[in-house]
Design goal:
globular, alpha+beta, 25% helix
Length: 159
């Protein structure tokens, strides 16, 4: 990372940034150009390992890309605040972000409900979930096992 002064190296702080984010962008290797998709996500962290969960239709470009190559990149960011200065070139932006990469897979039907529960709890704060069988049958659940990630932030000190 070029700007070491903005790097977040503490794993717990990186996880905290991730928890503040509401969208994760996945980058798939899709032929000649990358294919990037913004998605809601569920997060599971245990003993330093991080797993992200996503829901999807059971067919489409994402799933085709996973079949071709399960290696993906991801990015999420939060805390955006424009900081203006005297001149246009004096402007900057506060932010926190995480980027990383890992291996993504499509979960088996027996694993879907637990993963969807994590995702749903994240956005609704409800801990009990009932998923209709016909909806589960039409839903793919993706599991991204994070292999590497870095955090970055800029917070401007008030003078």
């Amino acid at each position: 990372m070029r700007r070491k002064d903005r790097e977040v190296t503490n794993q717990d702080e990186i996880i905290e940034i991730m928890r503040k984010c509401d969208v994760c962008r996945l980058a798939f290797n899709d032929g000649e150009y990358p294919y990037i998709v913004p998605l809601n996500f569920g997060l599971f962290e245990e003993n330093g390992s991080v797993v992200l969960y996503f829901h999807s239709a059971k067919e489409g470009r994402k799933l085709d890309a996973i079949d071709q190559n399960p290696k993906v990149g991801f990015e999420m960011d939060t805390g955006h605040k424009l900081i203006t200065g005297q001149d246009a070139c004096d402007c900057t932006m506060e932010y926190e972000s995480v980027i990383g990469r890992g291996i993504i897979e499509i979960l088996r039907d027996s694993e879907k409900e637990a993963a969807l529960g994590l995702l749903t709890t994240r956005y609704t704060n409800r801990t009990k979930h009932v998923f209709r069988k016909e909806v589960l049958a039409q839903t793919a659940v993706l599991k991204l096992t994070v292999e590497e990630m870095t955090g970055k932030r800029l917070k401007v000190e008030k003078k």
